[in-house]
Amino acid sequence: MSPLESALFGTDPWWITVIKVVVLFVVLLMWTLFNVWFERRVLGRMQNRLGPIMNTAFIRGMGQAIGDGIKLIFKEVVTPKGADKIVFYLAPVISGIACFTSWAVIPLGGQVSMFGHQTRLQITDVPVAALFILSIAGIGIYGIVLAGWSSASTYSLLGSLRSSAQMISYEVAMGLSLAAVFMFSGSMATSDIVAAQARPLVLGGFNTHIPGHYWLLLLPSFVIYVITMFGESNRTPFDMSECEQELVSGYSTEYSGFPYGMYYLAEYINMATLSAVCTTLFLGGFGAPWPFNLIGFMDSGWFGLVWFFLKTQLVIFFFVWVRAAVPRVTYESLMALGWKVLIPVSLVWVLLLAFWRTAGAQGWLASPVFVGAVVVIVLGLIGFIMFGGSEKEPPAPEPEAFDAFAGGYPVPPLPGQKLPDSYDVVHSEAAPAGAAAGPSDGDPSATQKSATQNGAN
Q1: Which segments of the chain have a pLDDT < 50?
Q2: Is the previous residue joined to 444 through a cis bond, with omega within 30 degrees of 0?
Q3: Is residue 439 included in any domain, yes or no?
Q4: What segment(s) does the record annotate as region Disordered (predicted)?
């Protein structure tokens, strides 16, 4: 064994590891160009337009994505006045490095033969690979925060603060959703999680030959993870750090040229990374779906790459679909969903799942007393939810009628006040005359009513 062969690289020679790293780097770059074209074409179809159709004949419109990448490489880089130059140019590098790093522990396929050596289609694996992916996502946010802080721009700073608060909110829920996967698989290593999902489901003592993928067994965790993917990647409808309406372009407002291209690249690779993690932890990874798993050669070797990229591309398609179908939410709705819905639901689900697993391991489910107690508790909770808040609240008092022309000129109503039903008919012709006469001409009660109204306002 050569000096560079260690536990980090398994039993692979160092040159095979280098080949894996270089090939994966090139694949991710080419895949990013494809996903840019793919998103533009899919959005065009969903919005009843063509999308890019010019440049290159083989894949129509692909040359547009390639041209955009080349343009960003050679475009002039402008440094804003007052910016911290070192941090300003270091921030996109951090985001760029972080978006590639997570792929080191994602298994793309099973064991294959490469240049006479048996190796796995994975750069490396560690016992806490899933936590490693979460930690890299946390480091990647530093590139966004530092970009906003160093740009000397209010728009950039607000965008970076939004992104950091969003990441904290949704990464907690994401970690809790992955805790259920760890409990079911008994491991945090990505290769072990994929192997655990390859075990067939057994229903009623009968082997169904259907792989037990966790998207079905852990459906609440899967739904929570899918929602948090959009929060982690700052994608629509959760792209609050890049709002064009109020922040121009958010944390990347002051960037141009190649540094801006780094953020553009990081966004798409991060989308692919989250899709690959979803495939690995919930969709069976590189394992073939049923019924293809019953065909031996289609569920082994290099075929794993086909299934992995097909599944991951389907998740990326879901990203694009949501962008076309769901509008951007407000910021308070974004934070309320994370803290008031996703995190509490994740906590309750993980606790219930842990209780159920413990009950099964200890044999409590075989006791009729335990089953009866669980049924009573569940029925009690259902009854409390359905009838616990059935007491009728006293009806709210009717709001007082409001006359917009009481003081001789129209004023808007205060909260709780409403215009009378006959307002439009009564004042459509009387408004100009009332406005010209003023409160002192005629009825003295109008003056008193005007004073009262002005005091309320």
Answers
A1: 1-9, 425-426, 428-457
A2: no
A3: yes
A4: 430-457
Q: Could you give the CA distance from residue 80 to residue 148 in angstroms, rounded to a whole number?
A: 12
pTM reported for the whole predicted model: 0.78
SS3 content of the chain, % helix, strand, coil (to 5): 65, 5, 30
- Residue 2 belongs to a domain: no
Q: Do 405 and 360 belong to one domain?
A: no
pLDDT of residue 247: 77
In a domain, residue 389? The reply is no
Find the DSSP H helices in 47-128: 62-74, 85-101
Token representation of residue 60: 């129509």
In this structure, the dihedral spanned by the alpha carbons of residues 129, 135, 139 and 144, taken in order and rounded to 10 degrees, is 110
Please give the Cα distance from 208 to 30 (Å, whole number): 39
Cβ density class 407-420: b for 16+ within 10 Å, e for less? bbeebeeeeeeeee
Structural domains of the chain, count:
3
Q: Which SS3 state, helix, strand or coil, does residue 206 take? A: strand
Identify the three-state secondary structure at position 450: helix
Same domain assignment for residues 96 and 165: yes
Cα–Cα distance list, 303 to 70, 111, 167 (Å): 33, 11, 35
Kindly state whether residues 90 and 202 are assigned to the same domain. Answer: yes
Quick check: 92 and 263 in contact, CB under 8 A?
Answer: yes
What is the domain extent for residue 423? 398-457
Q: Alpha helix locations (H) across 234-342?
A: 244-247, 257-282, 303-325, 331-336
pLDDT score recorded for residue 25:
92
Same domain membership, residue 417 and residue 451: yes
> CB within 8 A of 47, min separation 6: which ones?
324
**Per-residue pLDDT reduced to its tens digit, 198-241:** 888 776 667 677 787 888 889 999 999 999 998 888 888 888 77
Based on the fold, state whether residues 154 and 278 are members of the same structural domain. yes
| DSSP state at residue 391 | S
Rounded Cα distance, 219 and 212, in Å: 12
